[in-house]
Amino acid sequence: MAVPINPAPTTLWTVNREGTITEEVILRQYDLKRTTDNALLVNKTIIYRVDGTEVGTAQTNSGGDSALTWIIPAGSASRPISVEFAGDEVYSASSASATLSCYTWATKMASFDRTVRISGRTELKARLLRSDNVPLYNKTINFYVDGTFVIARPTNTDGYASYPYYDVPDGAGAGTRTILSEWPGNAGYAAISKTATLTVQKAIPYIWVMPRSVPRGGIAKFYAYFRRLYDYKKQEGKTVSWYLDGTWVADVTTGSGSVDPGIARYNYDTSGLSVGDHILRCEFAGDAWVDAGAGQATLTIY
């Protein structure tokens, strides 16, 4: 009959750890060994517990050490850690304990004013920092303009989140609008938001006038098309003024819908004009969305 072998006694130890809630922490165990001769024990399973709940296992290496990477969930600021070798037929169980300190950080945010014309493109940008000025990586920042959600963007390794493709809409016209950058927060980093000012300037007008050449006494068909920069959107329903040699001729509203959108036409009787070249000019006085501007061409009478 076999005689039972008494398992050899063992020992191990661990250390206090600290980390930010929602982020990884490395839990560690050291020196699992046989106490009779201090021989290190390799390939033994170590059970890790936090707050009394098992969070994973790891195998000891040639130095009798192990480590477990764990993401700290929401919970208390101080939590007990335990590491345990459960024992086997040859070696008896051993365990050790330590404390995990879990942090929730206050945050800082920087935002950036912008100046751009209607239909122009600009960058929405913010920077998120921990309260000790460490940049926060891969945190999602929500961007709003005048209360309307634009996009959510992650921070880079320097804590910057940016969206370089914001095309300024017409809105209520030129003036100031509010950019809101928002970090909603999580269990590890407090929520924060910051506003900046988007100064919106009027769009640049682009008015092209078609040159004309007509016999004296004929009808000159004035024609201009009105766009804006930078998107060349047709300017429908805008009132423009026609001038000939500096003298006002008529006010005309550009077409809209399916009828000559953005085009100003006017038929002019040239009976009173002299033979030769005359300056034909189409002017826009400006409104809340588009700056004043003009275009001109030559009207030739022969």
Strand content: over 45%
Overall body shape: rod-shaped
Spatial separation of the terminal alpha carbons: 132 Å
User: How many strand elements?
Assistant: 25
Mean pLDDT: 97
Helix content: under 10%
Strand order of the biggest β-sheet: 2-9-8-5-6
Largest sheet: 5 strands, mixed
CATH homology group of the largest domain: Immunoglobulins
In short:
Helices cover 0% and strands 58% of the residues.
Kindly describe this structure.
With 302 residues, this protein is mostly beta strands. The protein has three domains: 10-103, Immunoglobulin-like; 107-201, Immunoglobulin-like; 204-301, Immunoglobulin-like (Sandwich), CATH 2.60.40.10. It is built from no helices and 25 strands. The strands form six sheets. Strands 2-9-8-5-6 form a five-stranded mixed beta sheet, with no helix packed on it. A hairpin with a 2-residue loop joins strand 5 and strand 6 (53-59). The N and C termini lie far apart (132 Å).
What does the secondary structure layout of this molecule look like, with pairings?
Layout lengths: L9 E5 L2 E4 L3 E11 L4 E2 L4 E6 L2 E7 L6 E6 L6 E8 L8 E10 L3 E5 L2 E4 L3 E10 L9 E6 L2 E7 L5 E8 L7 E9 L8 E10 L2 E6 L2 E3 L4 E11 L9 E6 L2 E7 L9 E7 L6 E9 L8 E9 L1
Parallel strand pairs: 2-9, 11-17, 19-25
Antiparallel strand pairs: 1-3, 3-4, 3-7, 5-6, 5-8, 8-9, 10-12, 12-15, 13-14, 13-16, 16-17, 18-20, 20-23, 21-22, 21-24, 24-25
